[in-house]
Design brief:
Blueprint (H helix, E strand, L loop, with lengths): L12 E5 L3 H12 L3 E5 L11 E4 L2 E4 L8 H10 L10 E3 L4 E4 L5 E4 L3 H11 L4 H21 L8 H13 L6 H6 L5 H6 L21 H8 L2 E3 L3 H14 L3 E3 L4 E7 L2 E7 L4 E3 L2 E4 L3 H8 L10 H6 L5 E9 L9 E4 L5 H10 L8 E4 L14 E9 L8 H19 L8 E7 L1 H6 L33 E3 L10 H9 L1 H4 L6
Helix pairs in contact: 1-9, 1-15, 4-8
Amino acid sequence: MSTPIPADDRRPHAVVIGSGFGGLAAAVRLGARGWRVTILEKLDAPGGRAYVFRQDGFTFDAGPTIITAPYLLEELWALAGRRLDQDVELRRMDPFYLIRFDDGETMRCTGDLDAMRAEVRRLAPADVDGFDRFISESERIFRVAFTDLADKPFHTLSSLVTAAPDLIRLQGFRTVYSRVSDFFRDDRMRVAFSFHPLLIGGNPMATTAYYCLIAHLERLHGVHYAKGGMGELVRGILGLAERLGGRIRYGAEVARIAVEDGRASGVELADGEKIAADIVISNADAAWTYGKLLADHPRRRWTDRKIARARYSMGLFVWYFGVDRRYDDVYHHTMVLGPRYAELLDDIFVRKTLAEDFSLYLHRPTATDPSLAPAGCDTFYALVPVPHLGGGIDWAAHAEPFRRQVQERLERTILPGLGGHIVTSRMMTPLDFRDRLLSVNGAGFAMEPSLFQSAWFRPHNVSEEVRGLYLVGAGTHPGAGVPGVISSAKVLDRLVPHGAA
């Protein structure tokens, strides 16, 4: 299904591969700049990782659930001559989320500094001063790493050289966990203020300390939920692209990016159809873009060897389930932490083994929006970081036993009696990320955001290999997460010329 192109539409043509948040945001920005845009989506509906599953009367957001920089969305709506609140209702979450430590203690994380200070004082009195200093440092890092750099291209060596003094001054060469440990002595506080890179595919023990900025990002702009689920936001951005003359085609898997005289000239679909274009924007996994879509094109930087040697984010095991009762004492966002932290991260990222213990994120959107389940019921998903497919785990054999472990863990902690109330269930494993979403190694968030895989070291927004090819999404600068991928599309405003005078 697609929107027909008007016969008199003579604008230059841009093809966008994939309809994740990065691809949809790119389509809006290109449409506003005078381009005729065609979005090609492999699946039967938009969203990519933000796809929506509907099953037995329950609605499940497949991937992202948190909105932390709504002003980036407001910018997209303004480009199409509308306001965000005309199409999507955002609800501010307070607290942002709850953290349940393995000892049963909980911590409410909020943007209210006095309330957060009280939580730290209750759990770790000696760390209150450290908390204040950490919040100040998070803001300093945010001003540089997000405000100044997130929507700027990093495709020239000079951009790296220019940013180097700030990198040194803000200690971005250190890891998140190391930097957090400068401010907190209590192990629980070190976990609570360092786990955030896991939300974008990073190992807190290896991710650049620049990601300490997330604490200030949450406090400054808040944590929000889109009424109706993230699918409403996906449909809203797609509606903007269509309002600007764009169209989308479903079931249109791109097999190859066509290159003529060193320049992208269009794409070829898996069924052999060829579509000409003046520019191509890939919202596909960056490693897939270079390793598969440009497999026949000689590459100087992103060679097969370099792609194979890159470090990828962890995989994800996601269990979606609906129950025939409500757990009204369970919050919308809850982090259920296991007994280990550093050792578990080593199992996931370094040893790539499936450990007996785990930590998980439990999403209960019906705490805020009962419309996502039948009356009197609850919708959940439990997301568990696991090794990517490079660890050789046979998920065809391990998926159901692992799901049972997750269920047992939830029953012992915050969902008593769960097994007797499950009425619908489905799973996603790293195999689904590889086969359904075409993510190399089944990684949940493309390449890991370590220091030497960030900014200039990450695949550039403007391709180093082919003229007229641009990249958006988690695998390029600035990285994963909804603010990151939407910012990657904003970078195009600095790189792509206007399509029409």
